[in-house]
Records
---
Amino acid sequence: MSVHPTTSRFKDNVHEALSDQRLQGALTFARNFIGRRAAAVERLPEFDALRDSARAIKDHTLAHLDLYLEAYEKKVLSLGGHVHWARDAAEARKIVIDLCKAKGAKAVTKGKSMISEEIGLNDALEAEGIEAIETDLGEYIIQLRGEAPSHIIAPAIHVTARDIEQEFRKAHKDLPASRDLSEPEQLLGEARKILRDKFLSADIGVTGANFLVAETGASIVVTNEGNADLTQILPNVHIVVASVEKIVPTLNDAAQILRVLARSATGQDMSVYTTLSAGPKRPGDPDGPEEYHVVILDNGRSAMLGGEFEDMLRCIRCGACMNHCPVYHAIGGHAYGWVYPGPMGAVLTPSLIGVKEGGALPNASTFCGRCEAVCPMRIPLPNMMRHWREREFERHLPPARQRFALALWAFFAKRPTLYRLATSPAMRALHFAGRSRGRFAWLPFAGGWTNARDFAAPQGATFQSRWRAKSGAVQ
Amino acid sequence: MSETPKPSPRVGLFVTCLVDLMRPSVGFAAVKLLEDAGCRVAVPSQTCCGQPAYNMGDRATTKEIARGVIKAFEGFDYVVAPSGSCGGMLAKHYPDLFADEPEMAARAQEFGDKCRELVSFLVDDLGVKAVKARCPAKATYHDSCSGLRELGVRDQPRRLLSTVEGIELTPLEGSDVCCGFGGTFAVKYGELSDAIVKEKTRAVAATGADLLLAGDLGCLLNMAGKLQREGRPIKARHVAEVLAGMTDEPAIGEPALKAKA
């Protein structure tokens, strides 16, 4: 739950993750999403057309963000709700804490919310002596473990069923040692039993939002567990925390984007629960909160508008990019060092915490392009990672050795004749040195490569010198 | 894709820096395939497409290199590279690179429209349906990322490979997953790259193939280097070598033939 990033130590984090056998075993699960998404897309021939339309909806909204945010606020107020604007994480925390204090709240239930992670809400609540209770099963598990989510839709994807059993036996004091918890269903039953009491005793419920609908003033949240429903209906006060780009103009727009959201995320046609809430309980409503608050967070996003990272604001947090990312598969989410992992995190993190702290992430990509290929919102993730590298390069952030090597290479790459004259003898020499084995197990200055794999010896003279010799240097 | 190719198109071979430096035989295989398909092939003086600078964020250097490439190759009907990565750079990224210079952007777009990856060019533009080549091997094929996702290279190499005499093509699980090369990524994030390529060599070994093929030398150097480090007896070659029937040269990273004798 820490908001203190370790992203600048990314390489160490990678080493740690790759050495963690337990984690490596758990990570194979992330790949299960790939087949499920593919099957869901297969079932919906118009999926790509829906992606185009989802992108157009968000692009239009971002171009008129002020208009729709104001319309949304007006609507929420007219429904008897309250809207609070937070420029940054500290303001957002303070708004929520002040509301909790004003209500004398002792316990807060929470639906799964990445914004809550981004602002470090749980730590802030605990520091004020207010109990924060995560009610999403995955979030509940990692809260017990004192960890941050390692995936934006499957926060405990790095944890195995056996780990969960251990955590429950440690944390749930009344759990008899003889109780069988060997099956996932039994673990679920145990969590449900504990959480039921928490739901009923909470003073305030905090949820995130997948959408804020300007037309109706509704916030929409999707879950597979129904925990967000109980979080927002049972307590007297419901607080929605959401960032500015969650806004969409109409319910119809939200419905269109919902059609690509779950399919991209888990391969479901729809999430099990799609819950709308708009304002407090009205006279005659059987249930609902007495007070309804929405905290709308900027935290660096408005600065992305109109710039080269604006496309990132289309992101609907489905997780498809990380589900398909070879880097994420290798290291999991914690190694990224802050709230958002995977390709979307590699683009968003430097925007939100700065390129100096977060710059390693957009560099740690092979640009394989699989993330962009599956992104329902058609966000050009590799291109934006490259933009970050350009911002870094402008600021002279890459290490001097890398810059020197690049400059030396560029000197020759810009001069074809000199390049040809210099490279052919070099390749012949390298060929001569490696001819007996055909490859090198070690080469100076190439440890990054040869630590892990052999380096093939070149065939000798370069293609261009051979070609010229063959064609009598007429070119 | 052009509908009616000229009878004998003039093709500028963009040989790519890796083929030029490391494995010229791939360049000669490309020339043979193009000439067999009726092209007139020329090789203008060249260095690199600029990706190392581009992917390190050095846009100014990339632009300078790109201007040189465009100038050197502008006169051809097509510019063909035995690589989806470099082909994608020329076809898709050069136009983006000059987005802030309208005149140059138009030139880069016109240039990009003529750029092709070798095998898809043979199949899609020239209508090549079969090759005359022999390669008795159990082979598997890895889809290099840029070729696959930027240029739509997937069925074309498999189609032509199926016409190679003696070859048995066996599918590779996760053939569309990155091998972990990523240019300078393989060196800058060596440990991470290693973790990714290990997955790939495991999948390659699981096919039971004795020959690994792909259309990009960068990926091949990475995968071959890992297969060899792991002591797996699987050879690696560029698909053009097999399609051109030019497999006399030792496979990637293998010693010269006399060692066998």
---
Amino acid sequence: MDRRTFVKTAAATAVASTTAAWGTLARAQGEPIRIGLLAPLTGVVAAGGKEMVEGFSMYWDSVGKKSAGRAIEVIVEDDASNPDTALQKARRLVEQRNVHMLAGDLLANTGLAVAEYVRGTGTPYFIPIIAADDLTQRKRIPNVVRIAGYSASQMPRPLADWAAKKKGLKRIITVSQDYTFGHEQCGGFAQVFSNAGGTIAQQFWHPLNTADFSPYLAQIASLSPDGVFAMETGADATRFIQQWNNFGLKGKIQLLGAQNFTDQSVIRTLGAECEGIFSSAHFCEGNDAPATRKFVADYEKQFGKLPSLYGFSMYSGALWLDAAFKAVNGKVEDRPTFLKAVNAVQLKDSPLGRPVRLDEYGNPIYDVFIRETKRRSGGKFWNVPVEAYPGVSQFWTYKPEDYMKQPPYSRTFQGINAKI
Amino acid sequence: MKRAAMVAACLAAMAFVPALLPGYNTTLVTEMLIFATLAMSIDILAGYAGRTPLCHGAIFGVATYVVLYYASVAGGNVWVGVLLGIAAGTLTAVVFALLAIRTSGVYFLLLTLAMGMIIWGICLRWTSVTGGENGIRGTVKPEWLADQARFYYFVLVVTALTTAAMWRFVSSPFGLTLRGIKESESRMRALGYNVSLHLFIGFTVSGFFAAIAGALYAFYNSFVSPSTVALGQSVEGLLMAIVGGVGTLFGAFIGSVVIIALENFVSLYTERWSMVMGAVFILAMIFAPEGILGKIYSLLARRREARAAPLSKSSTATGS
């Protein structure tokens, strides 16, 4: 093929495929409920994004891609772990593909960008993974609902309470990645722990993608606290657990973690070094409840691994949407009624194990488990429940109005000894 | 005369975009115009002054940050915010220019890269002002621009004006001195030109236009985060200028259309869209190293020459 023919063929193919795309688009205007799923399939959190898609499609496949008599069409778009791309893709899904609703995104900044966009369009947007506190608190947008998700500071609070009251830990150091998700989780922990009489001896903040934790571990060893609360995600979590072990701190100082610290996405590649870490979460893959066991077994069968936070959150999110679709007989076009139905859903028999409902701010109230990492038959590790805190809302025991008068958690405000 | 007719025809065609490509595609063309302005501002330096910068994403982003901060966080008037944003972007360019104009070639590239990274670092770490990696959100676009088509026309008018201004700038005698510097810095110095001053002014003007694009982007995106000032943004702007044709100014439009269209349409079919983009760049570099518009220009020039050749052998090649 000479160059000219090549150019001509390439141009013809391009034109043909674009035309074909328009054709499918025109046909898609009919019956199905269209859900735009935004997930980071490339970029720094691509692994998690893939599991999001797996979890979401696993549910719709299991019900034959149908709900309330309408077909379900899930249109997946890659947000590239980048807020600008996420925004662009959200625009396309809403304005070009005419989706009835958006769901997904993993990183807080991608979710916040899309949330700002749907504030203007009124498109319902569901965020099972985005944990940024203020989206369901001080800066709430009514059409952004955290179905099957959680706010960052919500989950570590029961762990702090448990550590102070049941485990009898007095002095704790927090170690965290230095960004909002970390500030909020540590803030939730530090406030409850210090108000329960404990002392936050020190707080370490390190940049994302820290390869070497030895400076922090050495200081921790010399400060000898009763426990350490670690808020790490992804590869940082893996490295922290390994280096903690190499430093000989395992077994000497009690290690506690945010739920993402001992999530399956981290510990599925680890061995005995991750044993005996306590964390708190709304989901526990080692829970004995029949619905959880069935979900975990199905997921393992289909994908050859235990479900992570990403997989199960999106699965439960789909379950939640399905319930809402049925409540409105599939009429998702009527947004106010549909959103009301979403807010009214109560999941009784979900992989979460316990009944779940939303508070008035669009964030779920969970029975939160204190979990411990244990070896399961077969040699792999998973989280098993130790204790359950019933009815934990994002406001813990505080009054929402009083709580929201306090500034949001940040590096400088951790709520230590601050009473509400 | 012929050129004026072409410009008028282009503008007339652009005026029909909201009618012919309604909905999302209008939004997309709006974005293309904004990024074309950024790419043109880069082309002033890369194509005319022969200095390839990797910091224009940062200048662009500073303007976006300031507009959003002033109008959304501080609650000020949005048009004052726009002026402040453009001023802040231009000021950033002034500082960058003071540091960078003494270097050239790969040193210029690296120095501007480093300065862009500093801006990125500040935006990421100065959480109390910039919101850290979560960025700043806020719909700052005035009410009367809320309509998609109207906003498109607004951006089109601004882009037409900035394009005309940039064209005027690069074809002015001053613009010719920039080209002279690109050809031979030492000769320009020997001719008595203050090379540093000329580069400084060129850099500042280029930054000013990048800042205008950044302020428009604040209207367009309603959101800014460190990824807007990151290296990726600078690289994307530069790639647009290169794909379209460095030193052609208007090539920036072609570059921005090609790249944004690729980003949008290829990702419909595959999640490996960035790989396809890479392949397109490689093909462009092999088949049209002077950029798409550059290629068109040289093809036209060759044809004209072929036609003119039988008549006189002394006709000279046009373009550089």
